[in-house]
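Hi! If you just cloned this repository, the fastest way to understand the data is to look at a raw example. We've pasted two of them here, unedited. The first protein comes first, obviously.
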Amino acid sequence: MRRSMILLALALAAAARADERQTTPAQKPKPPSTEEVLVAQLSSAKWMPAPALPGMPKGVEVAPIGVDPGSGGPTGYTRLPAGFHLPLHWHSHAEYTVLLSGKASFVVDGKQHELSPGSYVVIPAKARHELTCGTAAECVLLARRAGPTDYNFVNP
């Protein structure tokens, strides 16, 4: 009898844990830390549409790589279609970007720069900037931010 009670108690506890797992909302997987060993390959990037934001044109794709656990600043790839224009905007934190492929025209604080693969850009916090991908090929960028991502589009 005692053995039956123990088995019944164990079965009830297991059922309760199983039920708890089913009713607990699934948590989003934690992104990799950019402060630990991390190797990313552009060829195996998991592309997805960029989050829909007011003012953000459709067509931007992103592939997250990792997040700085201290600042919350993400690192990731961004892909823009040929001829795409990312309108004038600013961010609350600095951005560090490398153009990996394509050609682009980049304007920061009113000054235009022509970018080609390997171009590195530092965009200080709150600096107004915009980017137009050339018409010959898509643009792929690698960006790291000094804090959480935000987009503040400037109305014309």
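Ok, and the second one:
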Amino acid sequence: MKKMMMIAALMLVAVSSAFAGASDALKAIKKASTYSEAAQLVQSSLDQLADNAEKAEAYNTVVDLALKTFNAESVKAQAQQQANEEDMYNALQTAFTAANECYKYDQLPNAKGKVKERFSKANALRLYNLRPYLINGGGFFQGKDYKKAFDLLSGYVASNDYPVFAELKQDPAKDPNYKNAAFYASYMALMDKDYPNAEKYSEMAIGDSANGTNALAIMFQAMKSQIKTKADTLAFVQKCKNLYAKYPDNQVVFANLVNAYSQVGQDAEAEKLVDERLASNPNDFYALYDKGLVLFQKNQYEDAANTMMKALSLAPEASKLDINATIGDCYLGHAQARLDKIKGVLSKAAKDQFIPVYNNAIKYYEAAKALDKDGSQKSKYAARLYSCYYFVYGEADPKTQEAKTYAGY
């Protein structure tokens, strides 16, 4: 009997010694009443923890407290009671971040030089299936805090590659939420003017059947927003080339590469790219449109107009105003180039030869005007339409006066 009591006493001493052996920093962390308090203590006292084992335990304490808050608030939400959703999603994000840090120290040698994992498998099991709630959290913060919304949505994407989830991770290609979360993460980053992350996450979403096209639009907007120097412009051209190599059939990528070449004065490369695309598909709208622009810039106005007319027959509705205005520019440019060669006063007989060309320009400028329902695109045609009316009808004609007022003169 005495022997058994001695053993029990020894066990008590051992437990007491183990507790006493914890650093003051760890004791303070374990006494924290909220996950935010514990997280702040870990951040401020990490270097004061005794070893890797204590650091792992400290982060695990944060996970415990964060999940306690998340579970309590989610129960309220499911019961349609008043829940603190902001705290709920903040707690969940904290739990994922802390679990990943806990794993890092859980795999490192303790004070005795031995690796003794204590928390990682349990954390993986209790957290991985909660990842979809990160998407819900992104939706909750949308319009309230774009940075927080991005953190949660990108957390869903990034957490699949957290080492703590190595044994549970899914193939992103088989996860219907992965690209969708990446797309909305890119949108939130764009709204927050976090252009590097908008670019990063939009590229992940390019293949998404629902939002792939919009992801590309965000990606190009983010890339262009980062251009500050000539070096940035050249880097942008290279990014466009890389994307075109990956997505050679994508018209948006093609159009941006052609435009990028033109911006850096590489007109020959732009024209070569356009001609190669037309050789493989003579009815490619974007290639025809860009070919028309190339010809216009080379003052080959008739060929440019004919090419743009073919593009117009294939154009999406949103592009028709621009193309009509550009065809009008082709005719007006052709007429003005010829007029510049005439010396002296223009005779009536000579002027009459130009009327059909100006009338063609008028036809397409009027078509552009008809498509401009709210008058927001006047700069693309209004001044030139007035110029054409002036030449054909004269200054006093009511049409000319109306066009003059419409153009803002």
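That's it. A detail worth noticing about the second one: The CA atoms of residues 307 and 373 lie 26 Å apart.
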